[in-house]
Amino acid sequence: MKAFFARIMAKLVAFFDPRVDCFRKVPIAKGKEAREKAQEKLEHDFEKRLKDAIKEERKNFTPQSEKDLVDIIRRTPREALSIKDRNLISGAMSFKSRTAAVVMMPRDDIVFLHEKDSLGPLALDKLYKTGETVFPVLNGADKVCGIIRTDKLDLLHIGKNEPVAKLMEHNVAFARTDYTLEELLAVFLRNHTDYVLIIDNNEKLLGYAELDTLIAVLFNREIKDDFDNDASSFAVARRERN
User: Fold this and answer.
1) Distance in angstroms (rounded) separating the CA atoms of residues 189 and 214
2) Which part of the chain has CATH 3.10.580.10?
3) What pLDDT digit, counting tens, does each position of 213-224 carry?
4) Is CATH 3.20.20.30 correct for 100-219?
5) pTM, entire model
6) Beta strands 113-114 and 134-138: pairing type?
7) Residues linked to residue 163 through DSSP beta bridges, in sequence order
8) In this structure, are residues 37 and 45 in contact, taking their beta carbons and an 8 Å threshold?
9) Average pLDDT of the residues in 25-40
10) pLDDT at residue 32 tops 70
11) E strands, the chain, where?
């Protein structure tokens, strides 16, 4: 960006340089009114040359840093680049510099179960009332050994007291709080999951992150789609889209 303004200043200096032919040919104005008109013309010419110089440099300008690129995006008219697209570019550009802490929900928001617990109608009702659908399961050493997903339980085949150890999923994924969002996304993809527990360098559990939150950060907006019949090829084929 410094080079950009340096080139503009060089052109403006040339404009006022008495050695430049176009400047030497300007006659010296005599009289107050003539001087005022000459001054007005000089200011007009200066403003025009300044605008032309900036326009020319912007046309040929190549960004040298991320800051330069952001400045170009900011100056681009909305007709050429919508707010939605600006947010998408901004989110993608910050993906490598922001950490998992940005999308992490704190440990205090987690409802834990124990592998020796049992699940029945009453226990499940309490879990449903929390508003959560994923519940980490602790073993005897207070380490997470699995998760219970209430939205995937087959309620018709759950008795009065089903052991948590029998119902839980063993696919548990962890990420460190200092992971970049790009590294965190890789964890989600590698483990085919939408729920990752966040720890520190000492294995201390700090919280959790969900894939939909990460996607919202990437696009700089929440992704909304009420369609939920993706398992039906018939429904997908006939889906109406706006």
Assistant:
1) 12
2) 100-219
3) 998 888 776 667
4) no
5) 0.63
6) parallel
7) 118
8) no
9) 62
10) no
11) 105-106, 113-114, 118-119, 134-138, 144-149, 162-163, 174-176, 195-199, 205-210
